Amino acid sequence: MKYDRINSELYISNRAKFSAQMQQGTLAVFNSNDIYPVSADSTMPFQQHRDILALSGVDQEESILVLFPNASNPAHREVLFLKETSDLIAIWEGEKLTKQAAFETSGIKTVYWLQQFPTIFKQMMAEATGIYLNTNEHLRGNTEVETREDRFIKKVKQDFPAHQVLKSAPLMHKIRSIKHNLEIELMQRACKITEAGVRRLLGFIKPGVWEYEIEAELAHEFLRNRSKGFAYTPIIASGKNACVLHYIENNQQCKDGDVILLDVGAEYANYSSDLTRCIPVNGKFTARQKEVYNAVLHVKNEAEKLLVPGTIMAEYHKQVGHLMEEQLVNLGLISMEDIKTQNPDWPAYKKYFMHGTSHFLGLDTHDVGLWHEPIQAGMVFTCEPGIYIPEEGLGIRLEDDLVVQETGAPFNLMKDIPLEAEEIETLMNA
Ligand code: GLY
Ligand code: MN
Ligand code: MN
Question: Closest ligand 1 atom to the C-alpha of 384?
């Protein structure tokens, strides 16, 4: 792990929240992700399943967490099963968590080696009436790959058909949507690393630079600050490429007079930051570019004020649509007539602003969360309006990460990252 050890209070607190919501006499199991293969003997870098991470901090493959708050054996109320290590194994396979390190990481006292799982789990299940299984219920989750968690679920249902099956996902969405202070600190650190990357770029971007060279600068800055790298595949899109929302080729040369849209964020300790800035290749926006830039900035500033306790996200997105409508009319991109005759299911503004404004952010970039409940303090959202005008070869999106407060405006974790058009110009020409 490149990151500093995290205070185990975070995991102790998250497990207490989960256990408090479990039905009497039940247990819950959380599995690591697999290490996914490429081909031959190569593998993708390991990415831990976000739920076992949120509940234990164990960032290691082939780990299992069991929570059984009413277990008759007090030692079995919280148990970790880990891949066995020893001094000898460490020589051949590298460092893995020892039982002591697993305790220091997670605060869990009972740690067994993985080969003991079948026997001990059978004993625990004999005592339990039901089991919480951890299905992926992210609203946009969509993959054909069977995860380790999926395989476990299949096996449990086969081996223990008489047990009640309950869902972990709603409990985890609730816990993960409201961030602990320790998590806010980690997310702040991720944002600070992203800031270092952006500042590095302001002196680097010039006409003729290639998009992938910008990507390389960011990767360098992120890694030297203890990040694994990008929290998500970076979008470095100059000129008209900025109008392709998921442009990830990053293989074009940046031309004098174009604007580059950078949707890039560092991860830190598996927490995402998610930033978008738009930068003039030659250090100076044209009047039209600045006009569109400031229209987006206005929508962003106004939208952020709505991220307060009590707001309903569906309502928020409608209000942001109205803010955008006004700006697009001012820019001459849509007319009042277009608005009057628009299809309510696809309003006129969507021609130039076709994506959502905000999403939950945390261990996943598009984090799980309580989408249909009023916003609460401690939730973290992005705010990312944009205007995309392919006919002008221009796309502007501005995105920051915001923590909802008990009262008043949200706290901007990216408040120190240059945002105003003039500030960006000044720094590029310093
Ligand atoms: N970078 C992904 C997003 O902005 O949602
Ligand atoms: Mn983004
Ligand atoms: Mn985003």
Answer: 4
pTM above 0.85, yes or no: yes
CA of 263 from ligand 2 middle (Å) equals 5
Give whole-number Cα distances, 23 to 20, 167, 171, 323, in Å: 8, 11, 12, 45
Rounded to whole angstroms, how far apart are CA atoms 113 and 71?
A: 19
Ligand having the closest approach to the CA of 383? 3
What is d(CA 227, CA 173) in angstroms, rounded to the nearest whole number? Answer: 25
Domains in the chain, CATH or no CATH each? 9-174 (3.40.350.10), 181-428 (3.90.230.10)
Ligand number nearest CA of 232 is 1
Enumerate residues 6+ apart whose C-beta is below 8 A from 294. Answer: 421
How far apart (Å, rounded) are the C-alpha atoms in residues 128 and 116? 18
Percentage of the chain lying above the pLDDT 90 cut: 96
Tell me which residues have their CB closer than 6 angstroms to ligand 1.
232, 263, 274, 359, 365, 384, 399
Tens of pLDDT, residues 77-93 = 999 999 998 888 888 87
- CA 232 to ligand 1: nearest atom: 1
Nearest 10 degrees: CA dihedral of 330, 350, 401, 289? -40
Cα of 106 vs centre of ligand 3, distance in Å, is: 30
* CA 89 to centroid of ligand 2, rounded, Å: 41
Residues present in the chain in total: 430
Name the residue at shortest CA distance from atom 3 of ligand 1.
Answer: 274
Is the backbone of residue 229 left (phi > 0), alpha (psi -120 to 50) or beta? left
| Ligand 1 atom closest to Cα of residue 355 | 5
Nearest ligand to residue 248 Cα: 1
Q: Which residues of 372-395 are buried (b: 16+ CB within 10 A; e: fewer)?
A: eeebeebbbbbbbbbbbbeeebbb
What letters, b where the CB count within 10 A reaches 16 and e where it falls short, cover 14-43?
bbebbbeebeeebbbbbbbbbeeeeeeeee
pLDDT digits (tens, 9 = 90+) for 280-317: 999 999 999 999 999 999 999 999 999 999 999 999 99
Protein residue with least CA distance to atom 2, ligand 1: 274
90 alpha carbon, distance to own chain's centre: 32
- Token pair 């007319």 is found at 335
Cα gap 94→304, rounded to integer Å: 46
